[in-house]
Amino acid sequence: MSITRRKLLASSLLAAAFNPLGKTLAAGADVAHSSAPWRNWSGYLQSNPAQRFAPKSEQELADFMKGNAGGVRPVGAGHSFSPLVPTNDALVVLDNLSGVVAYDDASTTAVLRAGTRLSDSGPMLDQIGQAMINLPDIDRQTIGGAIATSTHGTGLGLGSLSAYVTSVRLVTPEGRVIDANRNDNPEIYQAARTNLGALGVLTEVGFQNRKPFKLKSMAWVEKTNTVIESFAERCLEYEHYEFMPFLHADFSLVIAHKETDGALKPPVPEEDQGDIFGVLSNLPVFARRPVINFLVEAIEPSEAVEASYLALTNIRNDRFNEMEYSVAVEDGLACVREILDTVTKLGIDALIPLEYRVIEKDDSWLSMFSGSAKASISIHRMAGYDYKPYFDVIEPIFWKYGGRPHWGKVHSLGYHELSNLYPHLDDFIEVQTELDPSGKMLNQHIAKILNRNV
Ligand SMILES: Cc1cc2nc3c(=O)[nH]c(=O)nc-3n(C[C@H](O)[C@H](O)[C@H](O)COP(=O)(O)OP(=O)(O)OC[C@H]3O[C@@H](n4cnc5c(N)ncnc54)[C@H](O)[C@@H]3O)c2cc1C
Question: Would you say residue 366 has pLDDT above 90?
């Protein structure tokens, strides 16, 4: 029996039942006034924005921000699991502001409009002889949304997208347009590289890129103990390396990418193996280990060679909710073991594997990787199931290891805890308050993080 990778990562009829939510409303919205509800990708977060504003130019956006006295939340692709976006005031949709603004061959840098989807940026950059240095697991996000939360991929020495931001152009809540980089407005630059959408609306982002490159992608199943023991060594062998330990099982899925000059070899299309997750979720938790071990051992290794932007990203059609924390690299493997043991010991009824990645440090103020390299660990629960009982048990394990929450994923922390984890949180709040004295950009979630009143 052969089982493919995606099927086992996140597939179930229950999740598919959520798919009719489909594209987030933000993605298709360019109506100026609408009372249609907004939902995030997983369908868990909802709000009823009084209007959706989709500017066709930066000037239109600046005029809107200046004239609008009420609350404003920018939205990208709505792929965040934490309530950064929800608002019953105005939603600003950047879909019309997309594409390459400028580029420089000598420094391999390019400026992209903030509404550009990562999926579009790959071919666009390729045409001008550039590629992003690293990418996250999927590519539906917008540039503005991805850097707002320090969205990342994996790889020793490779930072999050925010690490490679060289400049930003920001329309402030009061309608001013500000350019910022390391030399001009350096504090706004450091705040804006991971900004939670709290400083205003970014219209352009400059990136340090590299020349286009190809990656050989490899995925295989291996005993989790072996993967953990060989992790440091394997990170040196593969430029991009991660593993996904199956719950209630002894195996992990390993995903590795190595740079190559070899010929392109497209991935083999996946066959539909039916509702494996549906079947597994009907088994009592205590009976799952032998069944899951049997099934995952049958997963065939796979290999492909593609352009980096295709190799690094996947399509995830089946919806879930996710919590992710980043811990010190030296603590990461102990933390992931403790989570796996806890899931087993408490018989937690969850099926989607964990995800374990490594990310290089950067110096943007609010990046999860600000100041030191980290290992990130994610837990997931299918959309449609209550994730709280599972996430509430695991979150304190992350705290024990001094973990920093991913801004775009579920967490329960507020200013008090976050200010101990992010040494520059108060610097960020100072810049945010200066740019947004009346709190137009705040919703309840952001106000809780920044210790401000809505
Ligand atoms: C299936 C899936 C896979 C994922 N994989 C990864 C992964 O591999 N690595 C990872 O790190 N994360 C991952 N994420 C999380 C995701 O990358 C982040 O939550 C990201 O911020 C979402 O981008 P978005 O364009 O959807 O923005 P949204 O979720 O719409 O918004 C996120 C934040 O950006 C702000 N924002 C959006 N546009 C602008 C703008 N122009 N100016 C200012 N602020 C703006 C919003 O106000 C909000 O605060 C994943 C999410 C999903 C659903």
Answer: yes
